[in-house]
Amino acid sequence: MAGLVQIAEAREFDLSRDSLRQLNGYLHKQAARDGVKRVRVNRPDGAHSVACGLDADLEVDIHGHVGYYVAGMNQRATVTVHGSAGPGAAENMMSGRVHIKGFASTAAGASAHGGLLIIDRDASLRCGISLKGGDIVVGGSVGSFSAFMAQAGRIVICGDAQDALGDSLYEAVIYIRGSVRSLGSDARFEPMTEADLAAVADLLAKSGMSHAPNTFKRIASAKNLYHWHADADQEY
Amino acid sequence: MCGIVGLLVKNLTMRAELGALMVPMLTGMTERGPDSAGLAVYTAPVSNSQHKISLYSGAARVDWPHLLARLKGAFDQTASIEIHDNQAVLTSAANPDAVVAWLQARDEPVAVLSVGHCIDLYKDVGAPADIARRYKFAELCGSHLVGHTRMATESAVTPAHAHPFTAGRDFCLVHNGSLSNPHLVRKHLEPLGIVFETDNDTEAACRFFEWRLREGDDLAQAVERGFSQLDGFYTFLMGTEKELLIVRDAFACKPAVVAETDDYVAIASEFRSLSHLPAIEHANIFEPKPEEIYRWRV
Known about the structure:
The complex is a heterodimer.
Chain A: E1 5-7, E2 10-14, H1 20-34, E3 38-42, E4 59-63, E5 78-82, E6 97-100, E7 116-119, E8 132-138, E9 152-157, E10 173-176, E11 187-190, H2 194-207, E12 217-221
Parallel strand pairs in A: 2-3, 3-4, 4-5, 5-6, 6-7, 7-8, 8-9, 9-10
Antiparallel strand pairs in A: 1-2, 10-12, 11-12
Chain B: E1 2-9, H1 18-27, E2 36-42, E3 51-56, H2 64-74, E4 80-84, E5 87-92, H3 96-105, E6 111-116, E7 119-125, H4 128-134, E8 144-150, E9 165-166, E10 172-179, H5 182-189, H6 201-214, H7 219-229, E11 232-239, E12 243-248, E13 257-260, E14 264-268, E15 284-286, E16 294-297
Antiparallel strand pairs in B: 1-8, 1-14, 2-7, 2-8, 3-5, 3-6, 4-5, 9-10, 10-11, 11-12, 12-16, 13-14, 13-15
Helix pairs in contact in B: 5-6, 6-7
């Protein structure tokens, strides 16, 4: 394929020269045929949908900043962004691991069903919105409306949270080390159990972060919104 | 959807490269805004007794030298004009309100895009790259720039609906987003004698802020007041003679990225419009937080 430089069992792309379609097409099909396990991407320069829709045991290292939807819908692959990510990083991830070494914009890990998303620095608003089973570890702080309507999965926040954290949570659980400007409707602090401490320790270890698990607080759903209350104040 | 871009150079030697650095920023936002584009550039000021007026003739053929000759006869023998295709920047010592009224009274097919000591304004419909070429954006010099690429969602695609919007002197605003109460804002401003030129939502925000500036607010105070008065989604980027200011709504619905070095501060809807800038790999790159005001002075 044009524009490729072969280095042992790895491949290298340069998005200032190679097209996004060449890269993603290679990751989707040709990498497996070639027996390539590692792919390096240089000069992403804010491109959208880099390494999107993967379904293979690949290691993809992206050197630079990316735009919308990096590693969206990821399955099995390990995608590392050595830079920051635009909106919707690892959106709807199914499995695998996505690591953003810088910050992540809005809706990181939105609707992820599985896998692990690690963000070393801050995540913007709506991180983990509608999470459906994936795990997210944020080294920094998260913006407002994070974990809104999160249904399953876990979010570990090493920094602070802005407004309405965990609004309308279902069965997802949030662990936070810093302060919470405000909890969302039906979200509440709960005591940390031994199982919670073990879960936080495990997720931090997998993410290469070294905080003491007992410095985290647990937030989960009070489940008051699970059923219709005819007597509740229905004014909006 | 729209794209916004802004650039302020701190390193005075880079003022000559302002336009050249901006063009890839603007064209980089073509996918976010393919139907119209524009920019305001803040140049070295004209003398205190003079004003610059950016004029636009659209598809109409205007004999600019002839227009200048008549204006000289009516007002000011020292007036001069710089012509850029269907746009021209008039510099005159006459009262700018009188000049604008004179142009309108003579039924000249020209629209006034901006008035001020520093601001030159260009906007038109079409692809951003074509507009950049038409007006030779790469050759622009100055201290700071505010640019926009438009994908219209709420009002017509015409040059008048393109951004930046201006009001008063040396003030401009570009917008990514949509306001839900522009008519209410307008209903509040029109009885104060404030005249609107279009039905565009962004114009309501622009005239609201400029009204507050005239009422004595500084720009940050005006923006704070806007949090309770302007409803909807927005990333606003504003320019005055002295500063560049960006603010996002409480939900941060529309994106923005800032890259700052010792030499410049560059702002864009997305990083892909910043990747070509010098020493970008060493820049401090961050996203403006919702309802936080970020401003840089010239």
